Amino acid sequence: MRPIRTLIAVAAVSLAVATPAVATPKATATPTVEEQRLDQAAPQEILRRSGFDDVAPDFAHALAGTRSAAEAERVITREGRALWQRAVNRVQGRGPAGGDLSRDDDRPLYWARLGMTRALGQWQPGFPLIDARRAALLDTLERTSRGQDSLDLPAGKHIKRIVVTGFDPFQLDADVRRSNPSGAAALALDGTTIRTDSGPARVETAVFPVRWADFADGTVERTLLPAFRSGPRRVDAFMTVSQGRVGRFDVERTNGAWRGGYPDNANVSRTETVPIPAGVPTPSPQPQWTTTTLPHEKIVTADTGPVPVYDHTEVTEIPAGATTPVVQPNGPTPGSTARAGGGGDYLSNEIAYRATLLRDAVGLKAPGGHLHTPVLQFGPGNTDPATGQVTDPDFVHNREAITRQVRSILTVVAATTR
């Protein structure tokens, strides 16, 4: 996920509100930057051609019938989980397609969720609802509709447990039609089983927003920590996935503790050291670099599909005692300060840094790290967002091919777990 020196990140709703909240049941929120894109023709067509255009109206109707904040919480939890499962089912071929949009498409989930968050922001409850509680309800909707609260890893010694994460579409001001192959792969893999010579592996997935604020608020750690802690359901491997460079997969060897400032889906920029939320296990002092434990040598030499896979070792650093960033082709030098990991300085790098930092903090000895997919491209006659179609045969073929190769790469990872 990038502009190459800049990989994508995410912004979200805070779990805590610092200022006193006021009960304003008749007030409605101004639609967010992301929600405002929803009214454009392409998102509406995507919703209509997938059958997901009923999600937001049905959610608004269910929400209007609630009589307390507790009841609203139950409705939001139910409807958020239902949206996630509906998207998974559609991609995996269960139930009706709902329209002629290809089943592998991740975009119906993204745009339907935004319809729900906008409906929640505009909801006028018939009971007092302080701002902090409304924010908590929004957080519940985000988590449940992204699969973040339903990583249902099985217990037992005879099955392996793998977590995979993807991202929302991004760079939508340049082309609102965009899809994210990492999100499509996450939907295709959720709840599936990979067969290896050393036994079956259960895959559970979640999708993350492209917003800096959500990451600073701990959405990654909160999602992954239950699966990373010791216990009978602890993961045996994990792989964060995002969209990267044209025409190649990259196993990112090193992740850096730096945010490069590229605007997120909320059009917010952040240039700073990656902030670690309070209350999560983390090494002290905060390291500048973390390293993949994915079996990169086996991945790049395996026949996983038609697109080349690289062991990507380049980083950008400020060497010890220096002040100017330099590119290091073979990883960081001792004592250097991070300015970009192998995955850049956007949210792709950041999710990899956070996940591997958490791995180290809790002593998880398992393969884990980041995979960049090729950039998902429209067909040659469909490149102009002003006149182009929301889909085309090449676009669908490219996304399906990326998902197949992600699954093949994950099979290599699964075969190396104990």
Distance between the termini: 30 Å
Strands, total number? 14
The fraction of residues in strands falls at 15-25%
Give the averaged pLDDT, no decimals: 94
Question: What is the gyration radius calculated from CA atoms?
Answer: 21 Å
Percent helix, as a range, is: 25-40%
Strand order of the largest sheet: 2-3-1-4-14-5-10
Shape: globular
What does this structure look like?
This protein is of the alpha/beta class and 418 residues long. The chain is 35% helix and 16% strand. The protein has a 7-stranded mixed β-sheet with strand order 2-3-1-4-14-5-10, with helices on both faces. Strands 12-11-13 form a 3-stranded antiparallel β-sheet, with no helix packed on it. It is globular, with a radius of gyration of 21 Å.
Short synopsis of the structure:
With 418 residues, the protein is an alpha/beta fold.
What's the helix and strand layout?
Blueprint (H helix, E strand, L loop, with lengths): L32 H4 L4 H10 L4 H10 L4 H23 L15 H16 L8 H14 L15 E8 L13 H9 L3 E4 L2 E10 L3 H5 L2 H10 L8 E7 L5 E4 L1 E3 L1 E3 L10 E3 L15 E3 L4 H6 L7 E4 L2 E4 L7 E3 L8 E4 L6 H15 L6 E6 L19 H24 L2
Parallel strand pairs: 1-3, 1-4, 4-14, 5-10
Antiparallel strand pairs: 2-3, 5-14, 6-9, 7-8, 11-12, 11-13
